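Before relying on records like the one below, remember that each one covers exactly one chain. Contacts with other chains, cofactors or solvent are not represented anywhere in the record.
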Amino acid sequence: MSKLRIAVIGANGQLGTDLIKVFSKDSDIQLFPLTHKDIDIVDKNTINQVINRIKPDIVINTAAYHRVNDCETNLEKAFLINAFAQKNLAEYCSQQNSVLVYISTDYVFGLDRKKTTPYKETDSPGPLNVYGLSKLTGEYFTRYICKKYFILRSSGLFGLKGSSLKGGNFVETMLKFAHEKMNVRVVNDQFLAPTYTVDLAKQIHKLIKTDSYGIYHASALGECSWYTFAKEIFKITNTKVHLIPITSKEYYTPAKRPLYSVLGNENLKNLNLNIMPDWHIGLKNYLIEKDYI
């Protein structure tokens, strides 16, 4: 039986790194890690040249422009990378009958300011910022071009590699602030489900072995505010710091954030495929892996 040929775009990123680790343990998979040095997904010719040499059964695109605040002013760059590059990949995969996996975000939601229960895949999206809108556009390109696709929306990703564009992740930022500042202020009215990228990588690995194509929410179980998340980080690491809860109005950012963007993994659960743990477990495993506890 021939091996499943999988190309991972953004292989040196936060999620991409863990996808490579998880997939490498599967002897039935032949991996082709691709970084920005290997492929420019904005350029159709590059896609054809590079991916044609691989002839993958599955293409996983983790590449994204996710500096949320910067997306507000760099509108063209946000749509070029998050939407039109995805369109290029969708067209290629459609022509070659390959499966396309697109990593999306909880930020495709947020317009419903009264929302207090986890979003289902059937709920109507409504982004509050350019980043969310550009990712949603990438979703729509995928859906109308491809027949075989997995769109995975996740939330508050943190991983060992850290986000290259953001210079780390929320966990690292909080621990850094705790050592640099007397007081750490964190918003307490934005709710999410922070997700360890190793857990998401394992979930993707399980899902792509099926042909149950479509949209999936794949985030950690449970929910918390950013303040509660920070509080748990400091508690587990026994970090002494004066943590102050604030409102979104007290913490101005160029891009609006959803007050509630928790995802319910309904489609995964309905197929008995959900293996995402509670966010507390993911956080603890991350901190153990980093030798912080």
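Residues 64 and 81 are 6 Å apart (CA to CA).
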